[in-house]
Amino acid sequence: MKRYVLERIIRSLFSIFCVVTIAMFLVYSQIDRNNVFKEDQAVLKLKGQPDAYLNYRYSVWETLGYLDYMTQRDACTLEYDVNSKEFTSCLEIGSPEAAALGEQYKAKGYSVEPTPESGALWFTRDYTLVERIVRFYSGLINIDNPYAVQDANNPDLERKIYFGNDLAGKPALKCSGCEHKYLIYFNSDFPFIHQNIVTFDLGTSYPAYKNQAVTDVMSLRQGSAVKETVTFETGLTLDTSILDHTCTYKEVLDQLDSNKFVDNYANCLTNMAEDSMMSVSIKMGLMAVAIGYGLGIPVGMLMARRKGKLADKLGQAYIVIMISIPSLAYISFFRYLGTQYMGLPGKYPELGGADWRSWVLPVISLALPQIAGLMMWTRRYMVDQSSSDYVKFARAKGLSESEIFSRHILKNAIIPIAQGIPGSIIGCINGAIITESLYAVSGMGKLLPNSIKGFNNSMVIALTFFFTFLSVFSLLLGDLLVTVIDPRISLATSKKGGRK
Amino acid sequence: MEENKFEFVQFDEESSEHIAAPVYSYWKSVWRTFFKNKLAIAMLVVAIFVIIFSLIYPRFSGYDIAAREHVMDFSRRYISPNAEFWFGTDNIGDSLFDAVWAAAGSSLEIALIVTAINLTVGIIIGALWGYSKKFDVIMLEIYNIVANVPFILILMVLSYIIGQGRWQFIFAMTCTGWMGIAYFMRTQVMIIRDREYNLASRCLGTSTMTMIVKNILPFLISVIVTLVSRDVPGNIGYEVFMSYLELGLDVNTPSLGRLISSYQAFMNVYPYLFWIPVAVLATVTISLYLVGQFLADASDPKTHM
Predict the structure, then answer these.
(1) Is there a domain that residue A481 lies in?
(2) Structural contact between residues A267 and A250, judged by C-beta atoms closer than 8 angstroms
(3) Do A326 and B160 touch (CB under 8 A)?
(4) What is the pLDDT of residue A497?
């Protein structure tokens, strides 16, 4: 069993690797890289200044992982000591040092050209696919440690992990010398205990959510800033929207920073009014899953017991409608009913996430197809089981029908259904594209279509990785759950055939 | 009892070899079972009507989505359904009746082409997959990689890469879409090939051809029809989904999804603009699905007894 799980995990990782590699190859080689500027207003303003235009575009491509880009100053800084005479002359246009640098980089495979206006050299080289993949995976997981910060200007930085309090007075595991100030902390957001030790870097979003980390786009709160009265460690009390748990190391502090902070951890994020995309999608999805399983299984059982009767036929009609009609049609219909006759808001932002009424229609819209699917499979499995020998035996022994159904058949019929539970729970993170678009919910669902429309390449790659990762491991968890529930099933023996 | 009422029968060697069984014709039985169901007939009529209308009418209506002929004629805008414009007119003065059927036709056409390609490739590769052990090893590895990834993700990323358009979308849908069918067929072929009745048939010396046509095919037909009945509405669903998000098809390809997405803004002001395309979409998919399901039931030889 252990060997099987290990093998499955390796296969799954291989599968993710293949998918991301293919996606990366296609996205970076097939899509015109100028498309990333289609939605960017800043680049239009620079059209009149050729040098700034060039510099801006190549800098963006560099952050997106297309290429390595250097200005003459960058190259000189790398080559010579900043205080040396050679450095000063290297900066001059057309100097022998600069020419030598140009030759040197040409030999390394860079394209070296003078800029259109000033004539200063610029160096660029496209990354190969292998380099891109190595860069993606090597930066993927970051483990914070007290030696993470290497700041030449702050040689006396203390390196230690210690217990302390956050600004609100709650206990926290803090660190000096790490990238983050707070390693483990508590707050009122689910799941209440949070950590900054292991962080993931999936790349940088551009042009939408400009220069924000992809993981931050998904997991940070949104909306307008919320202010609170906070007393800083310096004793200063301010109305501010600072999120002290997110503070990271800042090399150069300004006056405002030194007023508030006693150390260099001054790069903090702001607190926003609305839940993060991921959190909205998870909450909405989990409620829908709960309703789906809570209703789908009992109704499916009822249909199996009353097979061929009215209840069964009504249920079948519902299933047929849900399966054959595209979700767009019935969700719109349902939304119409809810807004016209029940006075519920048709758009999530109308009342915002704090009001329960905003959640009713999206959650029910999400639950409807899940109920249909579960009804269908529960009924199918129970009907299949009800003609088996152990049921006939139970009936012959005089057990009542309800006992047979709820005790004997259900136990066997529930096993294949249980396989899907981890998938449907983890799948909540992906969000629901149609539902979230129709109700204008600010969740994860619209992220992928929007980044495709906005040519947000790194977001597309990151989401491909993320969604594939979730899907692969929810399938694995489903298979493992089945072996836990039903000891008769052993995954290890069914070597042939892989996933069933 | 009088003896002269009886007579001797000549012993006939040839007729004694005949087995007295009722004449059974597979396709006749399929149609008989199908037409027994009144709902099936009704749905068949609806489906035929919808298919003919959506595939043939747009060729004669002269509607061209790119033309926007009446865009300057303000008096033609937002006319509610009446005798002249059965479904009314839309925000650019085009007849909604023409627009809806052109969109339904285009959506249906795409779904049918995609289903045809997926089925052909899927069945051929699936049959080989089921028969060949070596091929099975390679294909299973590939299948495990592809099946791990959500189809919507593949669809969206592919349509991002190859761009928008009818044939690009069809390519995106069929690129990995056949794999599920092939895997399904592989399992079916593996199961049916080694069933006892086939084993017995082979022992009695039935030729391979007869085995395939008489023993295996009837079984697979019902399975294939079930697949088609799920796939056509399913593919329409994917097309609607992608066009609704303004991905997949380009602006000048009529599609129900794009229609619904663009008329969504008028849901409260001119409700007919939104609900008529939705109703047409529902009619198309539900009738096709039900006909397919009934046909699948009817084509299963087990229901013919």
Answers:
(1) no
(2) yes
(3) no
(4) 46
Q: What is the band of B305 on the pLDDT scale with cuts at 50, 70, 90?
A: low
A430 contacts in chain B (CB < 8 Å): 150
pLDDT digit string, tens, across residues B184-231: 888 888 888 778 888 888 889 888 778 777 777 777 888 888 888 888
Considering the entire predicted model, what is its pTM?
0.84
Residues A254 and A401 in one domain: no
Contact A333 B241 (CB under 8 A): no
pLDDT of residue A500: 39
A337 in contact with chain B, both atoms CB, cutoff 8 A:
no
Q: Do A238 and A287 fall into the same domain? A: no
pLDDT at position B116: 94
**Contact status, residue A140 vs residue A153, Cβ threshold 8 Å:** no
Indicate whether A360 belongs to any domain.
yes
With the C-alpha atoms ordered B237, B240, B244, B250, is the resulting torsion angle positive or negative? positive
If one counts the domains in chain A, the total is: 3
Please check whether residue A453 touches B, CB under 8 A: yes
Positions of chain A with pLDDT lower than 50, given as ranges: 494-500
pLDDT at B174: 92
- With CB atoms and an 8 Å threshold, state whether B148 touches A12: yes
- pLDDT of A492 reads 63
- How far are the Cα atoms of B2, B6, B71, B142 from residue B9, in angstroms, in the given order? 17, 9, 88, 68
* Residues A247 and A317 placed together within one structural domain of the fold: no
Residue A495 lies in a domain: no
Q: Number of CB pairs < 8 Å for A and B?
A: 111
Min Cα separation B237/chain A (Å): 5
Looking at this protein, which amino acid is placed at residue A445? G
Of A408, A430, A445, the one marking the end of a domain is A445
In A45-119, where do the E strands start and end? 67-71, 111-114
Please give the biggest Cα pair distance in chain B. Answer: 100
Question: Residue B95: which CATH number?
Answer: 1.10.3720.10
Residue A478 lies in a domain: no
- CA-nearest of A303, A299, A321, A320 to A312 is A303
pLDDT tens digits along A143-195: 888 888 887 778 888 888 888 888 878 888 988 888 888 888 888 776 788 88
Give me the domain span that covers residue A111: 33-135
Is the C-alpha dihedral spanning B192, B194, B197, B198 positive or negative?
A: positive
Q: What is the tally of structural domains in chain B?
A: 1
Residues A290 and A429 in one domain: yes
Q: Which of B149, B241, B247 sits opposite A326 (nearest CB)?
A: B241
The whole-number pLDDT of residue B246 equals 83
The verdict on A173 and A309 lying in the same domain is no
Instruction: Output phi, psi for A342, to 5 deg.
Output: -115, 0
B→A interface, C-beta within 8 Å: 140, 143-145, 147-150, 152-153, 156-157, 159-162, 230, 233, 236-237, 240-241, 244-247, 257, 260, 264, 267, 274, 278, 281-282, 285-286, 288-290, 293
